[in-house]
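Chapter review: from sequence to fold.
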Amino acid sequence: MRIQLTNVGKIFCGALAAAALFAGGYVAGQNRFGQPKTILHVVELKWSPAASDAEKQQAIDGIRGMAAKIPGIKNIWIKGERMQPRDFNAAYAIEFRDRAAADAYAESPVHAAWEAQYVPLRAASVSIQVTNP
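The token string follows.
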């Protein structure tokens, strides 16, 4: 069976197809985001003028070592892209599975050993923890 459309029908079908294509593009282009229940620990720091580049790098590399040894760490970020205030010069972030994992990190001997190496190298630091309700 063959369907024959009049010119008005063809225009209507073309307009309908164009509207469907526009709506599909609009829906696909919407910004989607989630609100995970993980805990994000963000630290911005200013190195001591006495800290060598090798010591700074060793401290940052130590974050990878901690992530491998402390359960509940999901992700790490170890390169600061933009510092505020501008006189700070490094940053890192650690994402924890939940509050229990963040608390275990704070009390871990692995974290204590890393902190003993890192704290003498910093002149100042600011840290926050962020989560969703």
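Two observations follow directly from the output. The chain has a mean pLDDT of 88. The CA atoms of residues 6 and 56 lie 75 Å apart.
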